[in-house]
Amino acid sequence: MDSRLKKQAHPKGKSEDVKSNLSTSKRGVGKTVELVPPDGGWGWAVMLGNALSNMITNPLIQTFTLLYKDRFNEIGMSATDASMIINVNYAFGMGLGLIHGAVLKRFSYRKVAIVASILNAIGVGLTSFANSFIHFLMTYGLLNSLGASFFHPSFSLALNSYFKKKRGKAMGYSMTLTGIGPIIMPLLISKLMSVYGVQGTGLILSALSLHSLVGAFLLQPIKWHMKRKEEDPVEDEGNRQEDEDNTIISESSPNKFVSRFGVESLTQEEPINSENSIKIFDETTYTALKQTDDVENSDGIQNKINKVKNRKGAFQRLLERIASILDLSLLKDTHYIILMLGMNIVMSAELNFSFLTPLILDELGLSDYQTATIMSTIAAADIIFRFSSPFFADYVGYSVRTMYLISMVMLIASRMTIIFVNTFHPLLGVAVALGIAKGVRSVYMGLVMPSYVPLDRLPSATGLQMVFNGIMMIMFGPFIGFVRDVSGSYNWCIVAINGMTALTIVMWLTESAITNWRRRNLQIIIKSVN
Q: What is this structure's pTM?
């Protein structure tokens, strides 16, 4: 029996296509031999490296104001300036999200992780010497952000490359171990500050962050650990048929959209997607021309199209090329825009509240140790409910978006309680409630967008979300600091943060109601036609 062996090279950075790009097939033999991710083996070392690195670096960002709040007071820095430094750090890193994919394709995730770890450690170390707004802005706002921006996507790409079937389990283990850091680090920083002061503590934390290099060196290329797997082509055909059944794009007509949970729509301009829809519509460059009584022949139409293309200047072609690379056609989808804006508003509000938490507690008269204890309590409740919230959602049958909405309501309620509670022990109870809400939000924050956007467009959707999130941080963060400087109290900052979170709830519920109304009307029309 004749057989042929085809080998395909693996392009760097393509974690999702590992199985298809690194495959060898024997046609006509009855079985297919493919190279697949190990789903274990060295992948567990990669998972541990990811957890170790995040366990150290993530709390350093979250405890920035705990470490430097006294330094801010010494140099007379206003709340607006402090908010600007914090939000520039996040906005600059998120703005670089557009080039993450290109950098990871050009270089391996291992090289990027090594360089990012070094930059992150240098940024933390130089920040310890800061005694002015510009110094903080350059070292923490820009240099530290540059390292952290490329640090997380490189580790995430490596972890996703090594796991496919066990990806959820590996990510769960990694997130659980990562959650230990925010529990320990505030107490450690509090103890180090009492012994070595702010500058000495900053240098020690810089040395600790260099441990992320160990995790970076564990990110071996996936091609070293690929495994051969024999599969029955009959079973593969069944799996491919099941995947085809789940797509929303009809092969019979480029203008037809089929939702697994909804109905067919014959227009591209307003596709009807259900709340749990997995894929969004595929864009085309122009819509079909309508037929009229004065029908032109196909050659005349083509000539007109060619004339339009020839009239386009070089700059316009460049813009079209950039739009194609960045997949800016996503911005034509109203549902995606509403999801993205809502998540960006909530994320900006939550990040600013996390950074302001030590300052809020300091205003209430709590000591550094008490502040660190409350922050550790929040982190402990967070990690517990990261683990338990998916079981609750499965039991009650709530969707991803519903769980995320529940977490937003819980965040608003728990944050508002701080205004009426100002002693240590009651605040511990509030910390537990905040941790529960944060745990639920953390789990479903990363699932809202993938539940709507298809995987092949998810990197572009995530990159656009990061860019707009950075813009939101620059706009919203200094505004919170301005509210504090004008009012003289962080209570009004809490009110403003809750107001932004409530705005997202209103946006999403309104959009969901309109979508359901349109779907019902479309179903009525289809029934009447039939």
A: 0.65
